[in-house]
Design goal:
It comes from Posidoniimonas polymericola. Pfam families: Glyoxalase (PF00903). InterPro entries: Glyas_Bleomycin-R_OHBP_Dase, Glyas_Fos-R_dOase_dom, VOC_core. This is Fosfomycin resistance protein FosB. With 136 residues, the chain is of the alpha/beta class. The protein folds into two domains: 7-59, Roll (2,3-Dihydroxybiphenyl 1,2-Dioxygenase, domain 1); 73-135, 2,3-Dihydroxybiphenyl 1,2-Dioxygenase, domain 1. The protein contains three helices and eight strands. The protein has helices at 15-25, 52-59, 80-92; strands at residues 7-12, 30-31, 37-41, 46-51, 73-77, 96-103, 109-114, 120-125. The strands form two sheets. It has a four-stranded mixed β-sheet. The protein has a four-stranded mixed β-sheet with strand order 5-8-7-6, covered by helices on one side.
Length: 136
């Protein structure tokens, strides 16, 4: 198997609200999609939004659940200032600030926000290596 993540699909409670957050609030470019799903093109992958219950049904798992989902999505940026800018943009769009951006134990700089469905996003600057669009 070639290691790659082609698409990340998030189960959401309110598709229209989540589309407004990602497209309008964060500026993610939306692809043409059927009305029951939304797709956004990212650098090297896609983000899908699909009804939480429908996604659970498709995977044949229960839709109930709360708390920590055991994963976080990460968005790497080129500077500490950009960490603040992205986190501020997300919060202005309706995200919940989870952890203020600050220097972290591994020598970088990061903060966390949660989207309207509680999916965690880390925004990070790694001064030792740049993982960005040109690396996708």
């Amino acid at each position: 198997m070639q290691p790659r993540i082609s698409m990340i699909t998030l189960g959401v409670r309110d598709l229209a609200a989540s589309v407004a957050f990602y497209r309008g609030g964060l500026g993610f470019p939306q692809l043409e999609s059927p009305p029951s799903v939304a797709f956004f093109t990212l650098n090297g992958t896609w983000l899908g939004l699909y009804g939480r219950d429908a996604l659970a049904e498709d995977a044949t798992v229960p839709a109930e659940g709360s708390g920590f989902n055991s994963f976080a999505l990460a968005h790497n940026v080129a500077s500490e200032e950009e960490v603040h800018a992205v986190v501020d943009q997300a919060v202005a769009a309706g995200a919940k600030l989870i952890k203020e951006p600050h220097k972290v134990f591994w020598g970088g700089y990061s903060g966390y926000f949660a989207d309207p469905d509680g999916h965690l996003w880390e925004v990070a600057h790694n001064p030792f290596t740049w993982i960005g669009p040109q690396d996708a």
